[in-house]
Amino acid sequence: MSESKAHFIRISKLFLKYKMKMIIAVFCMIIAALCTGFHAWLVKPALDQVLVNANEFYLYFIPGAILVTGLIKGLASYTQVTSLQFMSQRIIEKLRKDVFNNLINLHYGFFIQNKTGSLITRITTDTFYLSGAMASTYTALIRDTLTLIVLIGNMFYQNWKLALISIIVFPLALIPVRVLGRKIRNITKNLQYQIGNLASNLEETFKGIKNVKSFNAEKYEISRMNKEIEFARELNFKQEKVIARSRPFTETLGSLAAGLAIFGGGVFVINDNMTAGELMSFLVSLMLAYAPLKNLINVNVLLQGGLGAASRIFEFIDKKNEISEGKKTINKLDEIKFKDVFFKYPNTEKNVLDGINFKLSKNKKIAIVGPSGSGKSTLLGLMIRLFDLNKGEILIGNEDIKSLRLNNLRSFFSLVSQDTVLFDGSISENIKYNSKISLKSIEKFSKLACVDEVIEKLPNGLNTQIGENGVKLSGGQRQRIAIARALAQKKSIILLDEPTSNLDLKTESKLFENLNGIKNITLIVVAHRLSTIKNFDEILYIDAGKLIEKGSHKNLMRTKGSYYQLYQKQLKKNA
Questions:
Q1: What's the distance, CA 239 to chain centroid?
Q2: Cα separation of 284 and 42, whole Å?
Q3: d(Cα 143, Cα 83) in Å, to the nearest integer?
Q4: Residue with more model confidence, 459 or 494
Q5: pLDDT, tens digit (0-9, with 9 covering 90-100), for 370-398
Q6: What is the mean pLDDT of the chain?
Q7: pTM, rounded to two decimals
Q8: Residue 413 and residue 490: Cα distance in Å, rounded?
Q9: What are the helix (H) ranges across 332-459?
Q10: 3-state SS of 202-252?
Q11: How far apart are the C-alpha atoms of 105 and 569, rounded to whole Å?
């Protein structure tokens, strides 16, 4: 089965889940089609009985019949549209939920490899486009087919010979259907990808607006975005141009059919084989048939565009998680052991971690230090399986973390990463994120993370709205709130990845003093300033992916190795 056919069947099954709504919609389409055909039929008695025979009954009957059937057709059309829209909106909702639910559970590496704007357009634009295209496709396939059948039926009823002459050109309408379908699907996919790129570039620009302003880069960004917008315009125009290619063909086809009907009908009327009313009823049916025929010609173009969006949507719904889910669970935390751990990022040759071996004891305060790019942050990511190691084992007690359920493993950890991310809302809401702690607890964790010093300077305190990603706060203030949020999760292990890079020495020292005083947690910190971690239980020095030395501050200073040299360098720098 082809991919497009499989996608069509899959989407149709979504619509068929709402069988009653579909039955109502189809029934209303039948009613609307019959009303259209009845209007065309009424032309015959209107001419023959009213204008020719001056029949008084038909003089009153025909306007009344037109009014009643018009009202019925209007009500049927309204019910059909609302029924299809009900299904469409439910399907948009389901597709958006399915895409998001699958994406949010995918491995961290997936989000590194895919642009944010592209992910957003799959959930918003693509789902909307797909559902709209499919609703219009079903409307055309059912309503317009029925209308065409009823109108052609009236044409045969009036004069079957003239009907055969007129519709002999109809099969030619299939030519643009076959020629344009595949082209429009490919263009639509490219257009959706470009919209995703455009959204990503806009997001990057607005997120980095501080840099744009500071570098006087407005003209550069305008030039860059103009190119993306122009490319989207070109694809849009290309799409519309392909769609429009069928119009000269259909217009010519309609004119040819009308010309044949008028010529043949004129001959029949002149030879008394057909009344003027029958000819007019026939011609009205033929003219009315043009619109549904044109819709049916374009339906494949519309469908192929929808299937292009479907391909992008189902790609993400069916995306498999590269981080395998374990089956075991643990109820308590023991020491963490790294055994011969090797790791390198995808599409790179050099190992970031190169044969790491060490143990992290429970309820201890551990610092990881070393030069930039030595693999410190990667160690933290591997503990919670943001990535999977290439070789070796990471054990909690005697259990390999790969054998554990991800939600069970991560239930023991709380991470504060280098790139502090806050959510648009209040300080209180950010600290409380995904937890059900009381206001008293929020205040407690705020004090431990030195957020209380921030709150005192703000008029609304904990209820202060911080803007998107905390744009209204300084870098140091955002970091403190992120640490308070990590503490509020009440996890056994707190992972802090250079969380105080924007804090002054005094605040940082106070913060680590507070964290050192918390009992029954394991604190693992990637540290920058060595003076603030002197009282930690153990310090690991990592360089070029290798564990060079470990021990307490005193022991490492005594051995005068790499840690000692780095500490002395910082002392001279701060002197």
A1: 23
A2: 10
A3: 13
A4: 494
A5: 888 888 999 999 999 988 898 999 999 88
A6: 85
A7: 0.79
A8: 9
A9: 376-383, 406-410, 427-432, 439-448, 452-455
A10: HHHHHHCHHHHHHCCCHHHHHHHHHHHHHHHHHHHHHHHHHHHCHHHHHHH
A11: 44
